[in-house]
Structures are given as C-alpha cells and as structure tokens.
Amino acid sequence: MRVVIAEDSVLLREGLSAMLARFGIEVVAAVGDGSALRVAVTEHRPDLVITDVRMPPDFTDEGLRAAVALRAEDPALAVVALSQYVQHSYAEELLASGTGRSIGYLLKDRIGDVAEFAEQLRRVAEGGTVVDSEVVRQLMQRRSDPLKQLSAREREVLALMAQGHSNAAAARILSLTEAGVAKHIGNVLTKLNLPVSDDTNRRVLAVLAYLRSRSD
C-alpha cells in the first residue's frame, strides 16, 4: 500500500512514516501543508492519503479542506483525517464524499494500538469507512443543536447580530464595552466552527445558524 502523509509537525510526520514502514506500508511522500499535499497526490497517485487537519499557513482546517478538494476531484481516493480534534466545518462534507466509502476520521489521542491503526488504514484503502466514535458523537450533538455550546451572553449577542445591530449598538443594549461584544462574537464564531475564508462572511453564517435553530 502506497501512502501520502500530510502533517506539519516534522517529528510526528517522521514518526508516523517510520511506524507505517514497520507494517509494510510505503510512504511515497510526507509533506507539511495542504498545497504540498495536493501536489504530492497528483504526482504519486497513492492508495491512501493521511492528513492532519490544522496545517500552515493559518493552522485552522487546511488539511481537511485539501482532502475535501481531492475527494471532489477523485471520489475514489482513500483519505483518513488524523487529528487531535473534530473540525466540524468540513468533517461532515468529507465523510459524505465519494458515497461515504474509502474514508476515515481518527483522533490521535484515542489511538491506543498501532497494529490496529495500521489495519484501519488498510480497511479504508480497500473501500471501508473508519470513524472514531467520539467524532460521530460530536457531529451528532452539533447537528441536534449547534447553539447548545454557546453561553447565555453569547446567545444574546448572536440574537442582536441577527436583528442587524452593530457591535456598538449591542454594547449599549447589553451594557458592555465594544471590545467585550467583539470578544463574545469571536467566541461564537469559534464555537460554531465556522470556516475561515476570504469568500465567507462568518457573521452571516452565524446568524443563519441562529435562525435555523429558532425555526426548529
């Protein structure tokens, strides 16, 4: 089995490469960012891609976005996201790609047996699906109520955003400073795991999430 690894940490990248070699898995390329990942896949046409989620330049969801793009180009490409956390923004899109086959999402801290891990990789490369139960739990929880994780104050700020109030107006209504309102808005955007993109107005996405919640 030929594998391409994308991981920004040199130590983890080299350690993973060495570990896979023990199980007869050939690492044909090991790169440190999403752009290099796409180049490596085009060049090597691997049987499997293993990618971290947070990578340069922004350390948000570059690896996952690259994986989604690669699956859009080639739905049969086997991909395993290997991360320390669940990136909700693109996780569902990745898991739903390619009819849900040849895909995996595993959490680094919950891998306790390297032999089992190697077997999971082979299973994905052969068309199977392997998703950590904690990933499933978090995705289901978010789908049931994306606003549940917000504090009462953050919900108040989001409600005012939905009503079209500026930060200054929200500050006056809630007897907060504008800096305080901005901090709450930042927390809302982070907790809702809204993608960072030049083409996306995260405030609008947050308001849409609020309105969907109110209509349920």
From TrEMBL:
<feature type="modified residue" description="4-aspartylphosphate">
    <location>
        <position position="52"/>
    </location>
</feature>
<keyword id="KW-0805">Transcription regulation</keyword>
<dbReference type="InterPro" id="IPR039420">
    <property type="entry name" value="WalR-like"/>
</dbReference>
<dbReference type="InterPro" id="IPR013324">
    <property type="entry name" value="RNA_pol_sigma_r3/r4-like"/>
</dbReference>
<dbReference type="InterPro" id="IPR058245">
    <property type="entry name" value="NreC/VraR/RcsB-like_REC"/>
</dbReference>
<dbReference type="Pfam" id="PF00196">
    <property type="entry name" value="GerE"/>
</dbReference>
<dbReference type="InterPro" id="IPR011006">
    <property type="entry name" value="CheY-like_superfamily"/>
</dbReference>
<dbReference type="Pfam" id="PF00072">
    <property type="entry name" value="Response_reg"/>
</dbReference>
<feature type="domain" description="HTH luxR-type">
    <location>
        <begin position="143"/>
        <end position="213"/>
    </location>
</feature>
<dbReference type="InterPro" id="IPR000792">
    <property type="entry name" value="Tscrpt_reg_LuxR_C"/>
</dbReference>
<feature type="domain" description="Response regulatory">
    <location>
        <begin position="2"/>
        <end position="123"/>
    </location>
</feature>
<dbReference type="InterPro" id="IPR001789">
    <property type="entry name" value="Sig_transdc_resp-reg_receiver"/>
</dbReference>
<keyword id="KW-0804">Transcription</keyword>
<protein>
    <submittedName>
        <fullName>Response regulator transcription factor</fullName>
    </submittedName>
</protein>
<keyword id="KW-0597">Phosphoprotein</keyword>
<keyword id="KW-0238">DNA-binding</keyword>
